[in-house]
């Protein structure tokens, strides 16, 4: 007994005078990577004594040749494995197109005959109507002859109208058949039919036996990407996370009722470690740019204003106890570099490139909820869910649909690269919290002293809570930051805000009771040369 024999010998075999036997195989399991997939097929067949080439048909033409592996169980020897192109599907499509075109031609000829018959009957009706005036001769028309003529006219007209109705009905029926056939032709022509691959496995057996085969190979044009639903009933309840995968493939073969395994690996990526090369420094003359403007640091991603780099200062992480997730609906396995989700229920994935939604798991995730507002940029309050211990959720970056208090809020992107210890998820705007930032003109002024002028700004920032419960909100604004000695920032009043001396970022952490409003004031004065123009609003 020769037990599992794995072979990856793919040399093209010359055509010998040996038996060929077609074997029907089924796709049992597919491991879908972020790009590409590994397909596993199985088959059981009777093997005659001697040398036989087994032909496994309907295999994807997108397979990677070097990835083919064949395992055999039984008292036989696998001599070689090769592949050849099978154009049967393409030929079948061409034959179907020719058949439809012939049927369409027959229907068009039939339709022309029926339309001609309808035209003849309509012409005869016109002639009968024109000849209904029977003129008298010199001696007049006998009553009997007149009655006979009228009877003939009536009978013939009735017959013509009846045949006309039948012909019109036949035209409609044939037109409908023709339209259906034309639509079918368009459908067949639009089908992406490609040649398939036949795997040829040559075996040698001393006697008639039964053998079992397992074939596996990698295919292109397949993959999956994550998608999430985040549902929050209210800020008193944990977040419900629905983890889904969109699986697609256009490999040229159908995966029908197969066991799916989703892997975070990507076999198409380069697996070679990077190598550092020598770093040679070369001197050059720097080109300095005169900086006479006030640099203002805004909330958002790192950016550069007039050559000065600025960066957002992240808030301190909030600690929360992360409860163990519920029993997963899939089995999760880990390797050194990847995570696999083994889906319990079988799925059918057509070879049409369309995404198929596959459920991975649903679970409740403890979260701390906090509102955030930066009214200088947007007079809205955003609800932020802060999750610690998120690494155990096995998440990937992907699109997220957000639902809050039973309403669909919109879509967002789950970003993980800069999450740190705490993953922050924006749940969208809450219209029950009103934020305003108003310039107090009575306290804002401009003064001129010598070659300098001083601009004073006084802002009132208010937060009103129209919800039934108290809310915690982080309110942020900023002070201008000077980059030259000619510009001075003084008479600063921030009313209890935490101030970052480097970036000028101001942070208030407020608790706002239901139905209440909290106001904060920001005041500063900027002294600068009269010849310069600075935007302080």
TrEMBL record:
Residues 214-530 form the DUF4139 domain. Keywords: Coiled coil, Signal. Residues 1-17 form the signal peptide. Residues 90-124 form a coiled coil. The keyword ATP-binding does not apply. It comes from the Bacteria. Residues 30-128 form the DUF4140 domain. The keyword Coiled coil applies. This is Mucoidy inhibitor MuiA family protein.
């Amino acid at each position: 007994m020769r037990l599992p024999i794995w072979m990856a010998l793919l040399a093209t075999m010359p055509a010998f005078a040996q038996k060929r036997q077609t074997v029907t195989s089924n796709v049992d399991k597919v491991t879908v990577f972020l790009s590409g997939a590994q397909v596993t097929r199985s088959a059981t067949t009777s093997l005659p004594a001697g040398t036989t080439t087994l032909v496994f048909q309907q295999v994807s033409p997108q397979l990677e040749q070097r990835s083919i592996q064949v395992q055999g169980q039984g008292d036989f020897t696998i001599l070689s494995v090769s592949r050849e192109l099978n154009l049967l599907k393409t030929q079948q499509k061409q034959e179907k197109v020719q058949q439809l075109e012939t049927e369409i031609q027959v229907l068009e000829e039939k339709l022309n005959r029926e339309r001609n018959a309808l035209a003849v009957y309509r012409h005869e009706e016109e002639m009968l109507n024109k000849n209904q005036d029977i003129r008298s001769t010199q001696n007049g028309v006998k009553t009997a002859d007149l009655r006979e003529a009228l009877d003939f006219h009536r009978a013939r007209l009735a017959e013509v109208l009846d045949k006309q109705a039948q012909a019109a009905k036949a035209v409609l029926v044939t037109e409908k058949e023709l339209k259906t056939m034309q639509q079918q032709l368009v459908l067949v022509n639009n089908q992406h039919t490609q040649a398939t691959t036949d795997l040829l496995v040559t075996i040698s057996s001393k006697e008639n036996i039964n053998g079992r085969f397992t074939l596996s190979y990698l295919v292109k044009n397949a993959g999956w990407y994550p998608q999430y639903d985040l549902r929050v009933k209210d800020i008193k309840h944990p977040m419900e996370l629905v983890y889904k995968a969109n699986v697609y493939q256009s490999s040229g073969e159908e995966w029908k009722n197969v066991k799916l395994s989703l892997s975070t690996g990507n076999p198409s990526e380069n697996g070679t470690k990077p190598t550092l090369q020598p770093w040679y420094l070369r001197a050059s003359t720097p080109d300095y740019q005169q900086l006479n403007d006030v640099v203002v640091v805004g909330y958002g991603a790192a950016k550069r204003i007039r050559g000065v780099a600025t960066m957002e200062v992240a808030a301190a992480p909030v600690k929360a106890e992360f409860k163990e997730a519920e029993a997963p609906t899939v089995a999760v396995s880990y390797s050194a570099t990847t995570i696999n989700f083994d889906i319990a229920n079988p799925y059918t994935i057509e070879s049409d490139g369309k995404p198929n939604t596959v459920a991975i798991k649903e679970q409740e995730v403890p979260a701390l909820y906090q509102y955030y507002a930066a009214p200088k940029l947007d007079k809205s309050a955003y609800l932020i869910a802060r999750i610690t211990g998120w690494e155990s959720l096995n998440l990937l970056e992907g699109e997220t649909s957000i639902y809050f208090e039973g309403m669909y809020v919109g879509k967002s992107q789950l970003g993980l690269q800069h999450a740190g210890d705490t993953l922050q998820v924006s749940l969208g705007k809450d219209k029950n919290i009103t934020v305003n930032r108003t310039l107090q003109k009575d306290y804002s002024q401009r003064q001129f002293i010598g070659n300098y002028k001083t601009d004073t700004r006084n802002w009132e920032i208010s937060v009103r809570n129209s919800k039934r419960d108290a809310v915690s909100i982080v309110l942020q604004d900023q002070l201008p930051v000077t980059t030259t000695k000619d510009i001075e920032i003084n008479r600063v009043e921030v009313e209890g805000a935490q101030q970052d001396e480097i970036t000028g970022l101001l942070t208030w952490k407020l608790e706002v009771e239901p139905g209440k409003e909290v106001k904060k004031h920001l005041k500063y004065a900027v002294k600068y040369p009269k010849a310069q123009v600075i935007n302080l609003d």
